[in-house]
Design goal:
The protein is an alpha+beta fold. It has 15 helices and 9 strands. A hairpin with a 4-residue loop joins strand 7 and strand 8. The chain is elongated.
Length: 479
């Protein structure tokens, strides 16, 4: 009789084998997915972090002063201010490097010259200066770079306008590298701003995350498997049915559930006092662990999103002129790139108004810069009111650019006249201080697909028209 009832293939054995295979596959699949997702997100955050730093740094650079330092290989006062800023950025943002270099070609060879680097206090003043010497203006960095890298950075220096991201291995280690050409107001390349962050931190973070997450998933999977084996051994059908009801209720409640508090399994009616009840309690505890794990993931996502918001806020500040609040020169550069894309696609229809306000230097010299700032803001308000449906940029101390689109493009001549009439009306008022009477030279360039290949030619025509208007205004005053 015992021989007849002997089970040839015990369910516990099948569960152990099948559960082991499932656990292995599950851990490998979840671990691989977690690795790819987390590593991608870390690189994405690094990219956003580096992009924000690059844009903030570019906004601080005086290209004329920088070009002078490169040509003479002699530092200026502005050079030292830039060096201090890079030192602070390097330390505050925990960057591996923050450097400005000048790539050039000499006798058929591509070389890279050191301009200025951001260093930590220990690196600059001695305690970390062991094998690598302190980089100085004019030093040749070529020996420290990977073969072929000087030629690559030279070609990018001449042709690229966006930020280039890459993973590089050089004498300083493995880095996540970003570079962008610094260009002057005429869009000519001056130097290359490079930043990099060590990939070792990402690798260590991902490794630690994988160890913790894999161990947690493996532990939960093994715990679940062994509890199920104990449950099957008891062969208690009714508690099994009740447990099935509990699991079914939990599945319905947790399906597409976004509230972690709902991820708690209830033990509605299993009070047998034996292993089945213990199993039910264990599953409840597991659901609590899962809830905690989900809460930690949500908190991590919130933290990452906050970091993204901070970088976006810093980027928004860089795109605004601090005095007037209108868009800055950097924002105009982005607008120009978008217009060039429209030109390439054949969808461009726009004009550019160049406005140069008069007498700013005289006001600053006679009444002081505080009065000059008030004058600038008053003129900015009048320009924005006139071109209310177009973006306005402050591209210089006394220069504004309005990209005329839609309604403003169609009514450009009327709007220019409205602006001139408004200035004349204000200037004619007797109760307005002499220094506050508005006057400006205005020139408009209209995009013509037959002659314009990019936005800069339109801006040039607007600039020429503005200077012609300024000459005419001077001639009228002499008469």
């Amino acid at each position: 009789m015992k021989q007849e009832n002997r089970v040839k293939n015990p369910l516990s054995k099948s569960i152990i084998i099948g559960g082991s295979i499932f656990t292995l596959i599950f851990v490998l699949a979840i671990g691989s997915l977690s690795y790819l997702t987390f590593n991608h997100r870390m690189m994405q955050l690094y990219t956003e972090h580096i992009t924000g730093i690059m844009e903030l740094t570019l906004a601080r650079i005086d290209t004329d002063d920088l070009r002078k330092c490169i040509e003479t290989k002699e530092p200026t006062e502005g050079f030292f201010e830039l060096m201090n800023y890079l030192d602070q950025s390097r330390t505050y943002y925990n960057m591996d490097t923050c450097t400005i270099v000048y790539p050039y070609e000499e006798n058929g060879e591509y070389k890279v010259m050191q301009v200025v680097s951001g260093l930590t206090p220990a690196e600059r003043y001695g305690s970390d200066r062991k094998e690598i010497p302190l980089p100085l203006l004019g030093d040749d960095l070529t020996p420290y770079l990977a073969p072929g890298f000087p030629e690559t950075i030279y070609n990018d220096f001449l042709t690229r306008y966006d930020i280039k991201y890459s993973k590089e291995r050089n004498a300083f280690g493995d880095n996540y590298y970003a570079a962008k050409t610094i260009r002057d107001e005429n869009n000519k390349p001056v130097a290359v701003l490079t930043t990099s962050a060590s990939l070792k931190e990402i690798e260590n973070t991902v490794r630690n995350y994988m160890i913790v997450s894999t161990a947690g998933i493996l532990g939960l999977a093994l715990l679940f498997m062994f509890v199920m084996i104990g449950w099957l051994r008891k062969r208690i059908i009714n508690p099994l049915r009740l447990m099935g009801e509990v699991a079914d209720d939990f599945e319905k409640k947790s399906h597409d559930q976004k509230n972690p508090d709902a991820l708690i399994m209830e033990n509605k009616s299993i009070h047998t006092g034996d292993e089945m009840e213990a199993l039910a309690n264990t599953l409840v505890a597991m659901s609590t662990n899962i809830k905690t794990y989900v809460e930690e993931l949500i908190q991590t996502a919130i933290t990452m999103e906050n970091m993204k918001v901070e970088v976006s806020r810093a980027n928004e500040l860089a795109m605004r002129d601090s005095l007037t609040g209108v868009k800055s020169k950097a924002a105009y550069d982005q607008q120009r790139d978008r217009l060039n894309l429209d030109i390439q696609a054949g969808d461009a229809e726009f004009g550019i108004a160049m406005i140069d306000i008069n007498y700013l230097k005289k006001i600053n010299d006679t009444y002081g810069h505080e009065k000059g700032n008030i004058y600038i803001k008053k003129m900015c308000t009048m320009i924005c009111d006139a071109f209310a449906h177009s973006p306005v940029f402050r591209v210089g101390g006394d220069e504004f650019v309005a990209v005329l689109i839609h309604r403003d493009y169609e009514n450009r001549e009327e709007l220019v006249q409205v602006l001139k009439d408004k200035m004349n009306e204000q200037a004619a008022k007797a109760d307005v201080d002499e220094w506050l009477k508005p006057t400006a030279a205005i020139g408009i360039g209209i995009y013509d697909p037959k002659i314009d290949k990019d936005c800069d030619t339109v801006l040039k025509r607007a600039d020429e028209a503005m200077y012609e208007n300024k000459k005419a205004m001077k001639a009228c005053r002499k008469e």
